[in-house]
Structures are given as C-alpha cells and as structure tokens.
Amino acid sequence: MKVIKAPVLGFCMGVRRAVDLAVEEAKSNKNVYTLGPLIHNPKVLDDLEKLGVQIIEESQLSAPSSLPTAHCSLIIRAHGVSPSLEKKLRENGFASKEAFASNEAGASKETYRIIDATCPKVKANQLKTRELIRDEYFLFLAGESHHAEIEGLVGYAQTDGNNYSSSNCMIVSDSNEAKNAAAVLYEENASVKPALIGQTTISQDEYRKIADEIKNYFPELKIVNTICSATEERQEALREILTQVDAVIVAGGKESANTRRLFAIAKESGKPCALIENADDIPKEFFGYKTVGISAGASTPDSIVDEIERKFITFFS
What we know:
By secondary structure, this protein is an alpha/beta fold. It is built from eleven helices and 13 strands. It folds into three domains: 95 residues, Cobalt-precorrin-4 Transmethylase, domain 1 (3-Layer(aba) Sandwich); 107 residues, Rossmann fold, CATH 3.40.50; 103 residues, 3-Layer(aba) Sandwich (Cobalt-precorrin-4 Transmethylase, domain 1), CATH 3.40.1010.20.
C-alpha cells in the first residue's frame, strides 16, 4: 500500500498564531479563556484544555464579574468578533494586553485583559467590509450564515445599529442563494452599488459561481478577492493528488468550514473519501486500497496527519 500526502496541508499561519498565543498565555496565567472555540479542531481544543485554557461563550460575558475566576485573560478566537462585541467587552472592563501591561485605559489590577488572536487575513477582511460600507456599497457576504467569521463581518457591515438584512448586506451561502438574493434586491432597488466579499475559507469555484449569479442582475458588481491563499493552496494540493490515488482521507474537525470544503472537493472527484478527526476514525475499507491520499484542513495539527499515515503504514508492515 502507498500513502500520498497532499503537498500542502495542516495548520495555516492564522491558526498556528492563535494556538501559539493561547499556549504562551497559559504558561503565565492559570485563568485563560477563549471566547468560543479558538479554532475548529477537537484535538487541539482538548490539548489546550489540558493546559488550562477554557472555552467561554458570549452569553457568559455580560460583565467581567460574570467570569468564573478573577484576573483572567480572554482570547478572541481566530475567526474574530464583531466590533460591537469588542466594544462591549472593553466598556465592561476588559483591556488589551498592551493596556493591561502598561496599566493604561483603566487597566487596573481588577481588569481582565483581551488577547486578540483574530487571523490577520480575517481582520483584513473585516476592515475591507467596513471600508466598502463607508463607500456606500451594498454587500453580498458569501459564506455560512452561522459561521463565526461571517457573524463578525455582519458586525462590520452594520451602521448606526441598522439591521443588516434590510439595510446594507445579505448573506449568501451558495450560487442558488445568490441568485435569489440578487433577484430580490434588484426588484427592491436596482440602482444600488453592489460588492461581493467572502468568508476567507470559501472555495474559489463556489465564489466564482456566486459572483456570476449576482452579475446577471448587477453587471457592475465589485468582486473583492478575500479567499485566503492558505485555503486555495490546500484545495489545489488536494486536486493534485486526486489524480494519483484510489481513495482520499480528509483530516480535520467536522465543524471546520475549510475542512468540509476539502471533503466536498474529494467527493466531487467520484473517488471514495472520508472526513475523519483522528486515526481511529479511518473506515476499514480504506485499508483495502492500493493508494490512499491524505489531505487536511487548515486547523488540523501535523500530529493527526502523522498518526493517520502511521496507522496505514503499521497495518501493512
């Protein structure tokens, strides 16, 4: 049996940065929380929990006093948050790491500090969204409506507390939704200045299809290239090995959007494929193929890929 790993897989820069920030903070502070899951990978979250890093939800943050422990660090996860939530945190007594260290901006010994682990590329996306809104564009946001990154972008698209669904943006998850949304908007106001901005992990092909559907109604659509190069590289690397293997394993968290898109690409090839979170999840039938490919999402650590490869090799040794 032969195992072929995709030439590009595993942790991207943004995920590695977020994990490194959390690990480093856990070394000096026993009270570390992440606002929602830091990334979408169960193994990594379990490892962080063993270091004392705990997950806390927005509903628990009405005020710093609502936290389980005092003088903690709060990490904003890689997917980012809306500016209104970040403002709310700071108004409630949370301070940036820098302000906390210098005892500025009310960063007293009673203050909880914020560590922003938002992926730099997600942050650039957020700022671009704000810029487009200020330039009076109507935005089509391409991505999953309940994904943390899209929720953050919606926050950056909101102005003066207006409801985004009836004011300045719409979320479209695929080309069908894009077609319907564009048709509705055209009926309501054909003279809007439209722009398309997407979740950094959306597939290039789906993004193009979404753009094409919107352009049928709004030919002057401004298309912003917001797809992370790490996402594209992993998708292209998977396509590269698909021609060389009999079956494909996609490793990563099932809540990970970029991992699910890799799995969708593998399924489209028509070859047997499986999305697994660890080596124990490998379907038995995959040990019967002569050549198996391994791809992995941007939040999948190298250790999981190595375990999967090792299990195949050990089985046939």
